[in-house]
């Protein structure tokens, strides 16, 4: 397999010229390093086009040049990606935007494959076995080892074959229009919101008042330090441990060291993080953050829903089971047939158990028309208890 690594403006122009002369869609993928670096930016962009070849674009240090060189060629064109939602944000950060998308992972799920990962799909449609042993590497490293480069190139060279094979399957199953709606929906998704300490998983288990102040203080210190050093925040202190510290509120370095998961053996970690923790203890209670107000239109947690709203919970369970049965009959993953969050929202808002009402509420919540047509009748029936 032939491919070219391009990592400077001169080779960028050569690659862009070759890609422009090719034909058909662009097969695109990225390699990121969020386990090692502060953000989820792309450190490698793989592009393959029939008649042009395969190019591995290394943008670090030349991101503006990547944008100015490749945007005129790639932007507005037809792209093929696998699990596009993982790659589109980092590509957008480089100023690269598709005109249309064919997502082979999503297409495989619509087609009924239980294992829609790239390696399984490539083997299914081409008979080629991919070595998928480098997915968790530090792709910000330079120079990239040759075997890593080959691994990255293989992520795109078979995407055209996958898209063509999956198109035939979806067309035969009458699912091509549903796929088109899903692909269009991918392009309409808003940018990934900026994270804050309020987004910490498990924060709802932290006591209000001082606990929230500890969480905020630790998160803000971690974020500032991670941004300054271009390090993954979780490599400094995992969010799970951060929340546990806020929950347990250790008062001495020894107590901090005993918090489950805390990197006590890391040199200087106890003293450094206890200094940060101490800052929270010295903040006046009048400046502690208030607990986040719960919105009435958001479903409660599973346990709270079951405990405080048992009748509504029973309606949700009935609807969920009905959709799972329908998904099985259509050979579509249940979460693709209708995202669980949409079902929870519709049931929680107490929509009447008739098809028209369910359909209107699903559309308002963001379901695609094909989903609404498929699930509204069985959801309404389940909500009526019949």
TrEMBL record:
Region (Disordered): 288-308
Residues of the HRDC domain: 208-287
GO molecular function per UniProt: 3'-5' exonuclease activity; nucleic acid binding; nucleotide binding
GO BP terms, alphabetized: nucleobase-containing compound metabolic process
Protein name, per record: HRDC domain-containing protein
Organism: Corynebacterium qintianiae
Pfam families from the UniProt entry: DNA_pol_A_exo1, DNA_pol_A_exoN, HRDC
Family matches, as SUPFAM superfamilies: HRDC-like, Ribonuclease H-like
Matches recorded under InterPro entries: 3'-5'_exonuclease_dom, Exo_C, HRDC-like_sf, HRDC_dom, HRDC_dom_sf, RNase_D-like, RNaseH-like_sf, RNaseH_sf
